[in-house]
Amino acid sequence: MKNLRLPSYLVLLALGLAPMSFVACQKAKSTTAAQKDDTSVAIQTAPVKEETRTESVFTSGLISSDVEARLSFKTGGIIDKIYVKEGQKVSQGQLLATLNLTEINAQVLQARQSYEKAERDLQRVKGLYADTAATLEQLQNVTTAQEVARQNLTIAQFNQNYSQLRATTSGTVLKKLMNEGELASPGAQVLYVAATGQQNWVVRVGVSDKDWAKLSIGDKAKVALDAYPNDSFEGIVTELAQAADPQNKLYEIEVQVKPGNKRFAPGLFARAEIVPNESHTYSIIPIEALVEGNGQQAFVYVVSSDKHTVKKLPVRVAFFDNQRAMIASGLEGIKEVVTAGASFLTEGADVAVMNDSGTSK
Fold first, then answer.
1. Which candidate in 55, 125, 202, 352 could, as Cys together with 142 as Cys, close a disulfide (CB 3.0–4.6 Å)?
2. Which residues form the signal peptide (predicted)?
């Protein structure tokens, strides 16, 4: 059998080309890696933290009294006397104003005389009926007339009593709307009185249905007033409306405020932070991790298990706290989210995770 021998120059050529082929292969691999690095997006990540806390409700309104009385006369007439001035302290039951009683007293006198006549007629007919000189019908008629006269006297006396104004609560006269000598029509407001004790000041505010559902009576509140910019006042929710206002669709809430040693007045502007008693656990991430936000819905990017690509996840945002986003759902089991570079990413994009110093992890 013959041995096949390659010419010596072919062997030398093969040996010379082998290193060149290896180098070329290495260059190709390096070029591919470099091209991949050029197309990767440099990103940074931040850890996902968990925190149990409450979501405060922020709202605003006006300071007012929880007991307010807009006093008016039941009957019309000339105002004879007003005994108080605006800003004056009053006690419950104190006489505040009266009408000129000339006409009203005459009506009471007329009603009393009519009643007395009806009573005499009744007694006379009763005697006649006992002697069979009057019929049963006549007795019934005078009995009815006597009862009608008695009711008319009651009405006249009632109107006489309500021809004067008395304080329905201890407090302060906030407004005097009419003066002595003016003609007051029935029901026309004359005086505005409000209770002004330590426990009588409230802020009435309107909240949305979502905020209303978070709150309950007894929730604590922090109240700030423009009149006292350096002070904060304690408050507590005392009333929750059970129906929305038909005009603005908001639910009215009443927050009782303790003024301490400060002087309150109706109409002061107040801002309230109401803290619900119920708390929840949230995933906390930096705001810059959120992309494509719409209401409470948003997306975040997380690094895939291969460490070189990213996944896009939907999340539900509960609320924001400074530069942090409180995530209600969507980050279960997630350790880190993409922050820097998130706005440049798409689903499955190649990434290079960088340190704070700018070097690759």
1. 125
2. 1-24
Domain count, the chain: 3
- Mean pLDDT, the chain, as a whole number? 85
**Token digits of residue 323:** 């530069």
User: Are residues 133 and 111 part of one domain?
Assistant: yes
Instruction: Give the pLDDT score at 70.
Output: 93
Task: Report the CATH number at residue 241.
Answer: 2.40.30.170
98, 165 Cβ separation under 8 angstroms: yes
Q: What is the C-alpha separation between 72 and 70, in angstroms, rounded?
A: 7
pLDDT digits (tens, 9 = 90+) for 202-217: 999 999 988 898 899 9
Question: Considering the domain boundaries, does residue 2 fall inside one?
Answer: no
The pTM score is 0.62
Per-residue confidence band for 52, with pLDDT thresholds at 50, 70 and 90: confident
User: What's the start-to-end Cα distance of the chain, in Å?
Assistant: 63
CATH code of the domain containing 345: 2.40.420.20
> Who contacts 222 (Cβ-Cβ below 8 Å, separation ≥6)?
232, 233, 234, 235, 272, 273, 275
Written in H, E and C, the secondary structure of the chain is: CCCCCCCHHHHHHHHHHHHHHHHHHHHHHHHHHHHHHHHCEEECEEECEEEEECCCEEEEEEEEECCEEEEECCCCEEEEEECCCCCCEECCCCEEEEECCHHHHHHHHHHHHHHHHHHHHHHHHHHHHHCCCCCHHHHHHHHHHHHHHHHHHHHHHHHHHCCEEECCCCEEEEEECCCCCCEECCCCEEEEEECCCCCCEEEEEEECHHHHHHCCCCCEEEEEECCEEEEEEEEEEEEECCCCCCCCCCEEEEEEECCCCCCCCCCCEEEEEEECCCCEEEEEEEHHHCEEEECCEEEEEEECCCCCEEEEEEEEEEEEECCEEEEEECCCCCCEEECCCHHHCCCCCEEEEECCCCCEC
In a domain, 204, yes or no: yes
The predicted pLDDT at position 127 comes to 92
